[in-house]
Design brief:
By secondary structure, this protein is an alpha/beta fold. It has a single domain (3-146, 191-216, 239-252), classed as Rossmann fold, CATH 3.40.50.150. 32% of the residues lie in helices and 18% in strands. The protein has helices at residues 3-23, 42-50, 73-79, 119-129, 170-173, 181-189, 195-204, 219-228; strands at 32-36, 54-59, 87-91, 104-110, 130-140, 208-214, 247-252. Strands 3-2-1-4-5-7-6 form a 7-stranded mixed sheet, sandwiched between helices. Helix 1 crosses helix 2 (42-50). The longest helix is centred in the N-terminal third of the chain and has 21 residues, at 3-23. It is globular. The N and C termini lie far apart (43 Å).
Length: 255
């Protein structure tokens, strides 16, 4: 196994591990776990470390990360002391794959909902998989209207070019040669889902919200917006959305 794989994998595993640690009670970390939009499978390893009995991940492609080779996933599991036999990776479209309903103790959507063409249907699919008493856990950042909602923070630092994708000169800015074809494609696929839309979809799917984080405007960001407002095209955009960066919702299906 190449050393770079673990170097890239580890922060993603730790990120998923922390989210589960902070948001799902220890006594509820059992049974079957499902990660939709699982990327390199880091959430599966984290879930198995937390005590889930099995972990399934689905992603549209396991070639998104050039450093990740699905053939080495068993070796990654071994490196973290979890059984690869308890983990399953499925390459496929979550909108087309048939997933067993009401079968998973925890369904995770981590940094994925902003990339799908129909967020409400995505939530419906995920919610349907949650078992009675089970969890749907949605955590993602950044949302589209935030100052880094373009996901191109390396090319457009928020300190100097906040809300770059909402600037009047965005068509010219996005011609920056530093933006790879892959990054440009990822920007084009972003949806404009908001915190309230995610919240309403979760409630509409029949789940009860038991944990939630909602961003509030920070004075420094309010001042930053005022400094750059003249350069932005904000017609029809609720100004509150400009400060929505991170959304976290933990919901349960009634027993």
């Amino acid at each position: 196994m190449n050393s770079r794989l673990l170097e890239e994998f580890e922060p993603r595993r730790q990120h998923a591990w922390n989210k589960l640690e902070w948001s799902i009670p220890a006594e509820d970390r059992h049974g079957r776990f499902l990660d939709i939009g699982c990327g390199c499978g880091s959430g599966l390893v984290a879930a198995l470390q937390h005590g889930f009995e099995s972990a399934t991940g689905i992603d549209r492609s396991f070639k998104e990360f050039h450093w990740f080779d699905i053939c080495e996933f068993d070796a990654v599991c071994n490196a973290y002391g979890v059984s690869a036999a308890r983990a399953t990776l499925i390459e496929g479209d979550a909108f087309a794959v048939t997933l067993q309903p009401h079968a998973y103790q925890c369904v995770l959507l981590l940094d994925s909902i902003e990339h799908v063409p129909n967020p409400r249907r995505f939530i419906d699919i995920a919610a349907r998989c949650a078992a009675p008493g089970g969890y749907l856990f949605i955590d993602t950042a950044p949302l589209y209207y935030s100052k880094v909602g373009h996901h191109l923070w390396s090319e457009f630092p928020p300190e100097t070019l906040p809300w770059a994708h909402l600037r009047r000169d965005w068509p010219q800015l996005r011609q920056d040669p530093r933006i790879s074809a892959w990054s440009s494609e990822r920007f084009d696929e972003l949806n404009k889902v908001t915190h309230d839309q995610i919240r309403n979809a979760v409630l509409g799917a029949g789940l009860k919200i038991v944990g939630e984080h909602r961003d509030e405007p920070l004075p420094a960001d309010v001042e930053l917006l005022e400094r750059h407002r003249a350069d932005l095209d904000l017609e029809g955009i609720d100004s509150g959305l400009l400060f929505e960066t991170w959304v976290l919702l933990v919901a349960k299906r009634p027993p």
